[in-house]
Amino acid sequence: MLPAQPNQSLIDGVRCLQAVATAGVPIGGRELARRLEMEPTRANRLLKTLAAQGFLHQDGDRKYQPGAGMHVLAAQSLHGSGMLQRALPVLARLRRRRPALIVALGVLWHDQVSYLYHADPQTPPHQAIGRLGAYPASISSIGMALLATRDDAEIRDLYRGRIIPGHPEGLGSLMGAIRTARRRGFAHVVESENPPHSTLAVTVGVPAEAAIAFAGHSLFPDAETLAVLLRQASLEITPPTTG
Amino acid sequence: MLPAQPNQSLIDGVRCLQAVATAGVPIGGRELARRLEMEPTRANRLLKTLAAQGFLHQDGDRKYQPGAGMHVLAAQSLHGSGMLQRALPVLARLRRRRPALIVALGVLWHDQVSYLYHADPQTPPHQAIGRLGAYPASISSIGMALLATRDDAEIRDLYRGRIIPGHPEGLGSLMGAIRTARRRGFAHVVESENPPHSTLAVTVGVPAEAAIAFAGHSLFPDAETLAVLLRQASLEITPPTTG
DNA sequence: AATTCTGTTGCTATTATAGCACCATGTTGG
DNA sequence: CCAACATGGTGCTATAATAGCAACAGAATT
Q1: Who touches strand D, with Cβ under 7 Å?
Q2: Which end of chain A is more exposed for a tag (fewer CB within 10 A), N or C?
């Protein structure tokens, strides 16, 4: 997957971009260098390069925050991959069909899930986008549904030697859950037994590029029914020209 | 603005990222290299580096398109800078107040405007985000309102020696329009006289990080009234802690 | 005033990248 | 069917760009 000559500057540069975006508050260069375990001079130069291009903005205290270029990139990528555009009407219909449940659309990135759409019953539809940050994949049904599409080896590499959220017993427990998800064609994650609260997700696209989910109380009885609903929705979202 | 040692790999890398996002369709490495006037090997390695990090995805034809990492970055940046979150309810109210008009929120990046929110009367509110790509700043009221906050020298550098959309007479004409916008405190761009259609924008934030606009028929008679409405909205969107 | 942060730059050894030449594969068209 | 020409990708080494120490100025803290 990595090219013969991967570009380390680019890798660390986008790590900086990412870190500023996730920080939530303006953050200084040295502080950021510590978080990413980078040499401060290097971080400083990458950050200032990004700032000069307009992807970051330095406020009065010279701290960094997302800049206009980043917003442009965000809008263009959401617009460019028509996925969200195709998904939104379908997701709105899912909400009308099951008004008591949370409806969400998310993508997997490394071991984290990010929600492009996350609407609980009280949320006005126009506030459902970009509402949440990142979330551990292993305790999210969207994450589990997407992990299930990956090779066992890849999953093992991702979690080897680390504590796995939701699976304190270790990798074996996670792989068991993954196999169950593969067999059933959907992921069902129980967040709590009492009160009963769980999440259920199926993937979207071939190969899977995202997943859609229901979340709420008592999904146990009609998991299959909900999975069928989600699978229908998934097919509608999948682009006619397979990419 | 540029650091003592700007990182060229990072600059070209994000240019690639940007180019793939704006392409709209999957695009090959060599094609992209031509568009950016880059050496193909270089483009290839930058693209594959981005793909390995999950920011781009290579489809079956090895063409590149936005990947999960880019969506994560998009969601996090929209979420991270709380601007859109604060803006959405205010924009919804503006739509209710003036149901016949288009309501938009956009940011300026170089000489282009990108809309984070663009809702015409027929658009369901949840489809108003990420709906449009980039647009020339000089023929957009949002672009003009934001350009007006920049130094004259900066604007001149941006457009020197280029054809300026909407101002075929050249830089002098643009600077005149900029001065008018500064004097009045809002930008008013007339797109056509017959049928009458124009756009009106004010900036958001100090320093200006975005602008909000009305667009529609016959904005001429009550430009001042609409500007007042937008200014009130702008103040509500501006974060309590000035950044 | 002294201390310790911070952001930033200058400098040069060192390292990572540039880009040619090349290969494998796929597509077009005679 | 087989040129002819695309394409994505890699190996190699000169070369140019980066790494990171040392240093400086300014803020904040003590």
Answers
A1: A 3-5, 8-9, 12, 39, 41-42, 45; B 5-9, 28-31, 40-41, 44-45, 47-48, 58, 62-63
A2: N
